[in-house]
Structure formats: structure tokens, C-alpha cells
Amino acid sequence: MAIVVTAETRLVVQGITGREGSFHASRNRDYGTTLVAGVTPGKGGQEAAGAPVYDTVAEAVRERGANTAMVFVPPRFAADAILESAEAGVETIVCITEGIPAHDMLRVYNHVRPRGITLLGPNCPGALSPGVANVGIIPAQVFAPGRIGLVSRSGTLTYQIGKELADAGLGNSSIVGIGGDPVVGQSFIDVLARFEADPETDLVVMVGEIGGSDEEQAADYIAEHMSTPVVAYIAGFQAPPGKTMGHAGAIISGSSGTAQAKKEALEARGVRVGASPTETARLAAEAFARL
Amino acid sequence: MDLYEYQGKQLFARFGIPVSEGVVADTPAEARRAAEQIGAMVTVKAQVLVGGRGKAGGIKLAETPEEAERHAAAILGMDIRGHTVRRLWIERSSDIASEYYFSITFDRSAKRPLLMLTTQGGVEIEQVAAETPELLARLHVDPLIGLQPFHARQLLFGAGLPAEQHAQAADIIARAYEAFVETDAMLVEINPLIVTPDGELRALDSKYTVDDNALFRHPDIAEMRDLESLDPQERMARERGVTYVKLDGTIGILGNGAGLVMSTLDVVAQAGGSPANFLDVGGGAQADEIVSAMEVLLSDSKVEAVLFNVFGGITRCDEVARGVLTALDRLDVSIPIVVRLDGTNDVEGRKILADAAPANLVVAETMLGAARQVVELARAAA
């Protein structure tokens, strides 16, 4: 078993005829993900990345039974693309696009959330269940199959930690990127709850960063609801207030959202926080060895 | 993107929120003409993107145009908490009976706009929230429904505004919400929202932040960005489309991916160094992107050594290595550069760098090792 992307995943890629869309659709398919369709309005009837292209997601769902969508659509059209998949009955939507206006995501979030749809991102690398399926841009060769769940707001930083875990002989059940924007579909808590319920995950590594209060809320959740141990890492101790550090959501507003506050909140709830990616991988390896 | 007070007030006026008459002035002479044009007592207000202007002496009353000119001469060029005053807003002075506070913030935790109203205006809202929370009315609006009249009533009764002000205040709340949504704002704050002795409500100050990712929809607001106020490196980075934040240390840092670069700054600081900047080259392995990024980074004369930290995922380390060599070749770089490559094709990448072996280039394998090396090299260079 794995979470978010599994052997049951039937993928439709929105924006499959674009350069990035077709490249990553092919990679995901080659990894073993069941790619069933692509969607580009006006290009229905063509083929891309070895999959039939439809004009609408509704067709892709009706004709090919797609249950998971990956959004590779430019920022100004991406909110519409997410809503299209949601209305077509897709259960899991992975939005890679970076730069979607925050107000668009406010409306999208409030629409999809009560419908029980799993929205990863936007501005996320996707999700990978090693040996099972890959939806997104995560480089699968970095990760080994195993029993550690990894959840993160960042891309390359997660790959770094995944690789250090692999170097230590440890692998992952699933790697889930929730995204670096201020409004993302899945919180740390949402993903932690899934790992907690996953019989193939024995430990979780949570990779946070400055901005918002998702890590603080996760700290309470871990203490109150989780039996699976969690090790954390927080990036951004050197970030000055009021500056966006690459990710639109990585900003300290006034005195809230600092790395120090997040670290303290986690440690106060008994979660060990690594000082560097290397130390985090070491703490995870130690905790795993004690299981 | 943060707007100056006068820019926020221009948007207020566009949405029908009452503001005082005012004119922009960049010189003392312009301030004098502005005061003459207004023809009444004026307030000379420094335009800076930082709070505490009044306490710093950046806001002065002037009875006459001559006095406005004198105040302008004193305030222009003034440093207010690290911000140089280069522009003034000359505004018709207001008589104030009371000062309220109203704001709409983008509450990312609740995923809804948060509206706050209190009669305790003119001070920091955090202070009101901490000391007299019962006087602060707060509520979230479902963005799919939008602001409804009952929301405004809840705020007005909750904050205890006098009944005779309800119609005016409800109108301001509705117009501010419209502005918040229409302009893709992350913050619309009116503090103080004044009541004049005649019972008229008016926005005396503005704090306005617009989502950078939505500026494509608002070319008029995008044009309000004051490039002159940016630090020279940040300005250069913006012009080149490089994701860069200036810090005040001596070790230049670039890498691929925002999280990894933030983490690199932290690890360098732990190793005893001080980061000069944050720079995310993204997936950019291409030589042109690396050259452009390096140029921005090296234009900061405080930089004494550089750490380039790359984790190859889709990006291949051998491509990055070739890009780095091209960049070093094209730019005349003499300060030490530590390159750390990990991930896809890292062995090939390190070999390419080792074979070329520029004298000032050090190849590192681990992040921690790279951080220690660059800190040592920066110390030796200082």
C-alpha cells in the first residue's frame, strides 16, 4: 500500500501536449504509472506520451476512467483546470503549476475541500510511491522503496533528504509534496493522517519551512493523534521578515511564521527537529532503528 | 507587492472609499505648490514602506505653503528605519474626533479573508488583540459567497460603533472587500479610519499589499512598483527574472529550489558564516541562467566567497557542471567558489569540474562539507 498515488491510480495529464507536460507524462508512464489520457482543449483525437488526448477532462473520465489528474497548465489557466477536474469527478488532483494567483486558490480550495477531493499543490513536485507509481516531477531514481513516509513543502530539499535516507539504507513508502504556495490543497495534517493510517508506513519525516502556521498545527496533531513517530526539518532560519524566499508561501509576516517558532512548537510536542538535512536523515535512521 | 500610502489611497478612491484630497511631491518646491493647490492646512507625509513614520519625524503639519516646503526639505532624504524618503504625500489635514481600525487580511490558515474592526484605532492592532480582545470584532468570509450585509452588521455591532455611523461604515467595509477581491490583495488596512467632528468616516492611512502572482491581471498596479527604492542587486535580479533576496553577509549562495537554498543559508550560518543572499536558479542548468544568476550575486561587493549547492533531480549534475565552467569562463571570477553537486549524474559532474580544475574552484560532495569549506575560504579572503 501507499498513499495518494497507488497501483489504482489512473492518470490524466492536463496540458499533456506542452513541452513539460509531455516530458513528465512520459516519465511517469515509464515509471509504471497507469497513464490513461491527456487533455488539451482543441487537440482531442491526437496522441501524446502514448496516451489519447481529449478536449475535456469529462471525456477522459468517461472514456478512460481517469481518477487522478496532473495539472501542467500555465498559472492563469490553472485554477480553471483544477475546477474542471473536480467537476469531472476526479478524486486526486496534483497541481505542479507555480505562480497561480492566491485569490484563485482561495476559491478553488473552498470549492474542492467539502467535496472530499485530494488536491496536492499548487507549486508542488507531486507524489511518488517508490516501485508503485509516480505522479509529478519527483526524480524517482533518488528514492528507494521502504517504510518511511516523507511529506514536504519543498522539492529539491525533499530529494536531498530522500537521498540521504537512501544512503543510510532506508526507503520510502510514499513521498508527498504539498506545495510551496500560501494556499495549498493538502495540509501537513491531512497527509500525516494518511501516513498514520497506512500499514506500510512506520515513520514519517516532515519537511517544513517558514511562512504560515501549518507546522505548528501539525505539532499539535502529531502529539494528540499519531502513534507513528515523526521526525521534522524546518528551513529558513536565516530568512529576514517580509521577504518571499522563492516559494510564494515562504514569507515571515510580522513575527509569525518563523522557523524558530515552528521548531519550538514541534519540540514542545516531542517531535525531534534536525538542524540540517543530514542530521534529519540521521535522526530518522536512529528512530527507525529503535522501532 | 507592498504599496505606498498614496498608492493605496488611489486604489481606495477608485473603489469609493473616502480619502482626503492630496498631491504627490518629490521636491520641497513641489510640496509648496501642492499646499498652495490644496489651499488649507496640510499634512506632509513621508512615503516609505515601513511603519513608525510619525515617531521618526516623517509626518508634519503645515499651516502655510512655506511651512510645507520647509518640512518637505527636512523629511526628503530622511532615513526611516533603513528606508530613504524620496517621495511625499501632501494631504489636506483632517480634524479627528475618533480613530478606528479596519482591515481585511488574507488568512492563509483559515483559507478565507479575515475582516477586523475596532474603535481602538491608531495603534498597532496586535496590541488591541492582546490587551482588549473584546473590543476587536473579527470574522471570516467564505470567498465563494462573498461579503454579505450580515457580515458588516456583525462587525459593526461587534465592535460597538455608534448606530449613526453604521451606514457609512458598512459602505466602507463593502467597498474595501470589493477592492480586496478585485485587486487580488493580500492586505487592505485602514488605520486609522477616522471620524471627523462632523461625523464623517474617512481613511487617513492605507496599507495595501497585492499578490505578485496576480499582477498580470493588474498592469496598472504592477506599474506602481518603485524600482528606485530597491537595493541595486535586488533591482538587477528583478530585471533579469532571478529569484534573489539580499542579506547582509559575505558568502554568496545559490542553488536549485527554494527549500534547498533556504536550507543552505541555515547550514552556512551553522558553520559560522554569514549568507550574503538567497538565490534560487530553479531548474536552471543552462549556462546563460547560471551566468545571469552569478552576475547578480557577484555585483554585491561584500561577497567574498560563493557556495553553489545543487541537488540534481530532473536537472543533471553534469549539465550543471558544464554551465558552471562556462559561467566562470565568461565572467572574470577571482573569488573562491565551492560547488557541491549531489543527485543525478553527480559523479560525472564532479569529474567534469575536477578535470577543468579552475584555481579558485573547490568541488564538495556533501552540503555540510561544502558549507564548512566556503566559510573557511571567506575567512581567508577577508
The CATH superfamily of the largest domain in chain A is identified as Succinyl-CoA synthetase domains
What's the CATH architecture of the largest domain in chain B?
3-Layer(aba) Sandwich
Task: Give start-end ranges of low-pLDDT stretches of chain A.
Answer: none
- DSSP helix fraction of chain B: 25-40%
Characterize the quaternary organization of these chains.
heterodimer
Task: Describe the global form of chain A.
Answer: globular
**CATH architecture heading of the largest domain in chain A:** 3-Layer(aba) Sandwich
- Structurally, the number of domains of chain B stands at 3
Outline of the structure:
The complex is a heterodimer of chains A (291) and B (382). Chain A is α/β, with parallel strands linked by helices. Helices cover 35% and strands 23% of the residues of chain A.
Mind explaining what this structure looks like?
The complex is a heterodimer of chains A (291) and B (382). With 291 residues, chain A is an alpha/beta fold. Chain A has two domains: 10-120, Rossmann fold; 139-290, Rossmann fold, CATH 3.40.50.261. Chain A has helices spanning 19-31, 57-64, 75-87, 102-112, 156-167, 188-197, 214-225, 259-268, 277-290, and strands at 10-14, 34-39, 47-48, 51-54, 68-71, 92-95, 118-120, 126-129, 133-136, 145-152, 172-177, 203-209, 230-235, 272-274. In chain A, the strands form two sheets. Chain A has a seven-stranded mixed β-sheet, sandwiched between helices. In chain A, strand 5, helix 3 (75-87) and strand 6 form a beta-alpha-beta unit. The mean pLDDT of chain A is 95. Chain B has helices spanning 5-14, 28-38, 65-75, 125-131, 149-159, 166-182, 219-222, 232-240, 258-270, 287-298, 317-330, 346-356, 367-381, and strands at 2-3, 22-25, 42-46, 59-62, 79-80, 83-84, 88-92, 98-107, 112-118, 136-140, 185-195, 201-203, 207-210, 243-246, 251-255, 277-280, 305-312, 337-343, 361-364. Chain B has 382 residues and is an alpha+beta fold. In chain B, helix 10 (287-298) packs across helix 11. Classes of the chains: A alpha/beta (291), B alpha+beta (382). At the A-B interface, helix 4 and helix 5 of A face helix 9 of B.
